[in-house]
Amino acid sequence: MSIPAEIARRSSPLAAVRKVRMRDYPVIPLAILGIVTLVAIFANQLAPHNPEVGILTARFKPPFWQHGGSTEYLLGTDQLGRDVLSRLIFGARISMVVGFTAVIFAGALGTFLGILSGYLGGWVDQVVMRLTDTWLALPALTFAIFLAAIVGPSMWNIVIILGVTYWTRYARVIRGEVLALKEREFVRLAIVAGCSKWTIMRHHILPNVINSAIVLGSLMLGVVIIAEATLSFLGVGVPPPQPAWGLMLSDGKQGLMVGYWWLTVFPGLGIMLLVLSANLLGDWLRVKLDPQLRQL
Amino acid sequence: MTVIEAAGLTKHFSARRGVFVGKPGTVRAVDGVSFAIGNGTTLGIVGESGCGKTTTAKLVLGLEEPTSGSICFEGRDLRQLDAAGRRRYRKSVQAVFQDPYASLNPRMRISAIIAEPLITNEKVTAGQARHRVDELLELVGLPAHAADLFPHEFSGGQRQRIAIARALALSPKLVVLDEPVSALDVSIRAQILNLLRDLQAQLGLSYLFIAHDLAAVAHMSHTIAVMYLGKIVEMGEARALARAPKHPYTEALFSAALPSHPDERREEVLLPGEVPSPIEPPSGCRFHPRCPRAFTRCAGEVPALRNLEGRLVACHLYDAAETDPAPLPLMAAQIMRT
Amino acid sequence: MAGPPLLELDRLSTHYIAAQGARVVRAVDGVSLRVEAGETLGIVGESGSGKSTLALTLLRVLPPAARIVGGRMLLDGEDLVQKTEPEMQDIRGKKIAMILQDPMASLNPLFTIGNQVAEPIRVHEHETRRTAWQRARALLNAVRIPSPEARVKQYPHEMSGGMRQRIVGAIGISCEPRLLIADEPTTSLDLTIQAQYLNLLRELQRQHGLALIFITHNLGIVAKMCDQLAVMYAGRVVESGPVSRIFNAPVHPYTKALLNAIPRMDDPDRRLNAIEGQPPNLAALPPGCSFAPRCALAMPRCREAAPPEFTPEPGRTAHCWLAEPAAAAGRLIVSGAV
């Protein structure tokens, strides 16, 4: 029919919920991310024990509220007698550092190549896009393990590995945006005004795609944190005795069978909360930064 | 004195049709177009979609390279210009486009938008640039504090003023106006058209004015060129052409224009069918399948543009008439002078 | 004009209510209009004048934030405001149909033309597939689609813009509605195609005794097509009456300014009369007459109280203090000014 879609819908409770979520700040995700960041920064002051050195006589102590636990080790100890709470606190530092730097690294690389590829077109576009096609065809994690096996495990290697693994997603999205922007009249007018390609990419293209890059980055933060945990879990990530959450999961998995649940549940919870907050924040940012959605 | 002269300007695009077994075709977007624009005058180009008017504008702006033909700027062929000459050309030819919402970068302040052509092309201090921005804002009738705002704080008409200010930053000789008022409301349209006419009188600008609103083109232009499927079918002094079209297509086009008054009764020439694809334009005269006055010759032979009482017309109807044998670009220039 | 009109709007108001009632946009505010059967009404206004909201109100397809807050819409004596949603579904397409601006967006790309033209016939008249398709072919024939037998099996992307718009027209008249609302139906069409389409609409109107409402910003369309005219400004009808009376002797200063703002082919050198300033923000209307801040003839009184409806002549209305019977002398000034 020639009548526009049935839009006579009256405002439903669902719409009200959506409105609240769009208007207000995402308090809980921001709070969680804020706390984790603070903990990561002040790990030295907050941690009650050295996370890397344990007392073998105090192995497998349960959290304080369970029988046999003590307030000395609030969340218990692991198989080497190290304090789980202190390891969690220092693990947060590793997750945050690896997560943020890898996302920034991947974002910078992907945005740069995406803009080049989208704006210049031609053979540059062909090369970059075939490269991302190839990249996306590789299973990301396997590829990361492969790289880790070559360069050897260390925290900064992990950052580089995750960066080169995940830049393709940025490149794809940013290239698409650039292709649309390129046809906008202000870009054409900049050409008429005599701006060089470089100037146009820097002044007219980059500021208009940076929002998308930020949104994508917040969504990628979760992916990258999980990837780091996975690599550490598999033993090709952050090398022991550094306390990465993935590594703690890996070390604690045998204990799960005999009732040492605190070894895995706490780092697992940490990963889950962090990834969840990153994703919620990403969703919110997407709505906030997209002018078309914002007008709703 | 002409600012710009185009001779035999041609632009072909290759188009692949079909998904898998596409045979390459050629879109003859602009096919042998010649015109000249005199100092301080306006050439209006009218025609329907696919007639090549926007491609012509892009060729003049240097956004596309012509397949063949030449553009002369102040008497010199662009292809023979050195780097400095090309830069001078770039500075002398600016543009205002249709959509005032898409033509300003949403992330730049108005002062930066207006000053950009200046900063890109000339060595100016921040203070000089700012001074020029204030001058330009005043010229287009905007308050000075507009400089510190962002595009989204302005209405469509105000944005179009900003776009005009920017186009004037380098004191160009020629401004290409591609549908500059189509996106604006009626009352705002009049403001912008008046502003453009005032600026022309004040600064001696030349305009290449492209629009589908025939009354606006007739209002703004000294000369009108009518295009159909990549070719100019008629060109001449604006008022004479609007009053007494010679080419059957011009006649139909102007009769299809909406009346400005309900008591205005005009003879309507209704054209059958639609504009054919420029990939395989009709043989002979490209207009002949829709032409109410076509005869056998029209299908076989391409009519040449010929000078008919001071007007250029490409139509076999006037074959018998006496014509001026002067070469086309020269004639175009002659017409500009009259 | 004996008997009740086909459609009568009586102080109809539609407001957009945002931020829990803190922001009220009076998109349509106390609009009263009449449309007789077989007659054409043009509703003219600039963007933000509320003309499109009025169209959506007539079909009761408003977005969630909009509410009809008062007034009546009588179609054949029945108040559409009081109808339930299922009752409205029966009326839409059957008694009132609508043609929108963008023919590509109005057609579903995944269904054939035949399916889409036949759909309203099957929904409203419960015809079998066979008869519905037969009628669809007849309708395509009526809107001059060549070889409708083949076209019914094709998809929208296989048609040109003009053909698509004619198909949208065919869908509009498929159930022989009494009233067809056309919201800027030709803005995306080329001039010669627009002329074809407007003639087609007029012919369909004559054949089926349709009443037409043209919603447009283009006074040319009104001059060509309409019998009656309503000029909207800031959500109100500021002037209404027979088209030729309004064009010859506008009463409201806004109408007059609008008529003087369009370039005219027969007088290209006349300076356009621009209306200074911008249309008001509908969420924060000035007190008194909303046009007063831009009106050259505004009196202190205009800024204090909004003018009620006056009847300058039988069959005409105007919301302007100058049209007040006591101010007859003032009216002479309006028609003599500029």
Descriptive tags:
heterotrimer; A: 296 residues; mainly alpha; MetI-like fold; elongated; disordered N terminus; disordered C terminus; B: 338 residues; alpha/beta; Rossmann fold; eight-stranded mixed beta sheet; four-stranded antiparallel beta sheet; 11 helices; globular
Helix and strand layout, with pairings?
The complex is a heterotrimer of chains A (296), B (338) and C (338).
Chain A lengths: L12 H11 L3 H15 L1 H4 L37 H37 L1 H16 L2 H12 L3 H28 L2 H8 L4 H37 L11 H8 L9 H28 L1 H4 L2
Helix pairs in contact in A: 2-4, 2-11, 4-5, 4-7, 4-9, 4-11, 5-7, 6-7, 7-9, 8-9, 9-10, 9-11, 10-11
Chain B lengths: L1 E15 L7 E15 L3 E5 L6 H9 L6 E6 L2 E2 L5 H10 E4 L13 H12 L4 H14 L16 H12 L6 E5 L7 H18 L2 E5 L3 H7 L2 E6 L2 E7 H6 L4 H9 L39 H5 L5 E3 L2 E3 L14 H10 L1
Parallel strand pairs in B: 3-8, 3-9, 6-7, 7-8
Antiparallel strand pairs in B: 1-2, 1-4, 4-5, 9-10, 10-12, 11-12
Chain C lengths: L6 E12 L4 E13 L4 E5 L6 H9 L6 E10 L2 E2 L5 H7 L4 E4 L3 H4 L6 H13 L3 H14 L5 H4 L9 H13 L5 E5 L7 H18 L2 E6 L2 H7 L2 E6 L2 E7 H6 L4 H9 L55 E2 L9 H9 L2
Parallel strand pairs in C: 3-8, 3-9, 6-7, 7-8
Antiparallel strand pairs in C: 1-2, 1-4, 4-5, 9-10, 10-11
Task: Describe the model.
The complex is a heterotrimer of chains A (296), B (338) and C (338). In chain A, α2 (27-41) crosses α4 (84-120). Chain A contains twelve helices and no strands. In chain A, 70% of the residues lie in helices and 0% in strands. The longest helix of chain A is centred in the middle third of the chain and has 37 residues, at 84-120. Chain A has 296 residues and is an all-alpha fold. Chain A is elongated. Helix content of chain B is 33%, strand content 22%. Chain B starts with a strand and ends with a helix. Chain B has 338 residues and is an alpha/beta fold. In chain B, α3 (110-121) runs parallel beside α5 (156-167), α4 (126-139) crosses α5 (156-167) and α5 runs parallel beside α6. In chain B, the strands form two sheets. Chain B has an eight-stranded mixed β-sheet with strand order 6-7-8-3-9-10-12-11, with helices on both faces. Chain B has helices at 53-61, 83-92, 110-121, 126-139, 156-167, 186-203, 214-220, 238-243, 248-256, 296-300, 328-337, and strands spanning 2-16, 24-38, 42-46, 68-73, 76-77, 93-96, 174-178, 206-210, 223-228, 231-237, 306-308, 311-313. Chain C is of the alpha/beta class. Chain C has a domain at 255-336. Chain C has twelve helices and eleven strands. Chain C has helices spanning 51-59, 85-91, 103-106, 113-125, 129-142, 148-151, 161-173, 191-208, 219-225, 243-248, 253-261, 328-336, and strands at residues 7-18, 23-35, 40-44, 66-75, 78-79, 96-99, 179-183, 211-216, 228-233, 236-242, 317-318. In chain C, the strands form two sheets. A seven-stranded mixed β-sheet of chain C has the order 6-7-8-3-9-10-11, sandwiched between helices. Chain C has a four-stranded antiparallel β-sheet with strand order 2-1-4-5, with helices on one face. The longest helix of chain C has 18 residues, at 191-208. The two termini of chain C are 35 Å apart. Mean pLDDT of chain C is 85; it is low at 331-338. Chain B binds chain C through residues 48-49, 155, 157-158, 185-191, 193-194, 197, 212-216, 218-220, 238-239, 242, 252-264, 268, 270-271, 274-275, and chain C through 46-47, 160, 162-163, 190-196, 199, 217-224, 226, 243-244, 247-248, 257-258, 260-266, 268-269, 271-276, 278-279.
